[in-house]
Amino acid sequence: MHDQVAIVTGASRGIGAAIAKRLGEDGFRVVVNYSGSVEQAKAVVAAIEAAGSEAIAVKADVSNADDVKALVKTAVDTFGRLDCLVNNAGITRDGLLMRMKETDFDDVLATNLKGAFLTSQAATRPLLKSKSGRIINIASVVGITGNAGQANYAAAKAGLIGLTKSVARELAARHVTVNAVCPGFIETDMTGALTDAQREATLGQIPFNRFGRVEDVASIVSFLASSEAAYVTGQTIAVDGGMTMA
Is 153 a catalytic residue? Predict the structure, then answer.
């Protein structure tokens, strides 16, 4: 992977940061996208560089088409190519359906679903030139099961799974794989905000009886980004401790 380049959106913290660091360990040169904290993004870049790879931080709002085009252009101009896109950027605006504001619905779909569409569209041409391109979409188990109070988030993540399958069919003939990873409850800032009662209720739904780690998700992304996953496309892979097993 030492000549390959990856963009990870929303990579300044949480799952995105773990994915960016893991791809850096794998030898990718990494474009760390962020929209808020430049200091957190720089810390991720420093960690990747300390592990022996190259990285840059690029600010871009993935729901803005011009920002996205500039993000992809910066990646190609800096490193000369693009081999892997990880669509991880996402936001939440939770609330019960009857009380959810229209802007809360629109904002979540704009970032979590439209953002992945825009970045995938902008990245397609350089990924085709790679001849072994990878698009990895970070969806969620709630896109499979739904979740009370998250109609907007679940709709966006379910749409992302559909987007994954459609783009996978379009790009398969050019050897670009497109897959979705669906994390369950992972120890991040979001799960850290749960009350003790909410944590206990959630753990009761997980056969492993623990929350996942960001590294659990990063490991699956690492596999899908590698040459070992060259014959895997259009798939939805849950990383959830058995929570959504059939």
Answer: yes
